[in-house]
Amino acid sequence: MRRILGCAVLALVMVRGSVVLGQDVKPDDLKKLLDLTRADLKRAQDRKADLAMENEKLSSQVRELAKTNQAQAAQLDELKREAAAFADKTLFLSTQYAAWLQFIGLNPAVKMQWAIFEETTASVNIPKGSESPIFMDPDWPLSVRD
Question: Does residue 28 carry a pLDDT above 90?
Fold first, then answer.
């Protein structure tokens, strides 16, 4: 600490140019210079402590954000898995529906039986006017009553 203080005093003396070789130096001038150097050193140390505290706060924020990021990444992965599963189910149901339409299109007797089934049995609680009340409700999210 004394070395740093001595070097700081020497550097300040050289920079400020108040001491020239061969000039008589008064003790009061040196004391003022030493006090100025100590004040500068104290300000520098205080600033260093402030920066260390700020760095710690920022580090804790970074850790919190990293935890949040990991949680959101895990949630995103889960949502992607769910979306893939829904896409697979949608593809399966779409192909089954297309196959069903093709099947009843090729079999008029089955198509008539299906129409009778939809009109009598399936439409007990379904509003009239919907095309396929059992399998599709175009207003589905809005038509469900709690």
Answer: no
Task: State the average pLDDT over residues 101-125.
Answer: 83
Residues 6+ apart with CB under 8 A from 29: 18, 19
Using the structure block, give the residue that is written with the tokens 């895990």: 74
Please name the residue that has the structure tokens 């600490």: 1
The radius of gyration of the chain's CA atoms, rounded to the nearest angstrom, is 42
Rounded to whole angstroms, the Cα distance separating 95 from 116 reads 24
Query: What is the pLDDT confidence band of residue 129, given thresholds at 50, 70 and 90?
Result: low
Q: What are phi and psi of 98, to 5 degrees?
A: -65, -40
Instruction: Read off the tokens for 94.
Output: 């779409």
Q: Residue 29 in contact with residue 18, Cβ under 8 Å?
A: yes
Q: Which residue type, as a one-letter code, is found at position 14?
A: M
